[in-house]
Amino acid sequence: MLCGLTAGASAQMRDRYAERPGTGDVPVARVEDMTRQMCDRLRLNEAQYIRLRAANQIKAARLDEIQWQHKDDPTRRRALLSELEAQYEAECGRILTPSQLSLYRSEQQRDSVPTQTDPNEGGLG
């Protein structure tokens, strides 16, 4: 009887997680790739790599969770994503050296600023 209850509970939990894809484990390859890219750009040592990988794992999981839970409320989603980014930057500040942190922030600013394009370029007329 105990085995039957355990199997039923396990099946219900699998169904529950299948309904909420944002709560599952984040793909390890995605976190490893993100951390490896940061390691190459910022020249991390092994201890920094390990700590940053853990921070990236948490950020990716929370990012997926926010995207899923607040898919119908863009204002709330933006606020939570902004808060998540601030927490992540604070954690990076504890992991990275000042020069690494400066390089990270300059890359983040460069990536967030859209490139200016000529409005006359590529037009039809």
Automatic annotation (TrEMBL):
Residues 103-125 are annotated as: Disordered. Residues 103-119 have a biased composition (Polar residues). This is LTXXQ motif family protein. It comes from Hymenobacter fastidiosus.
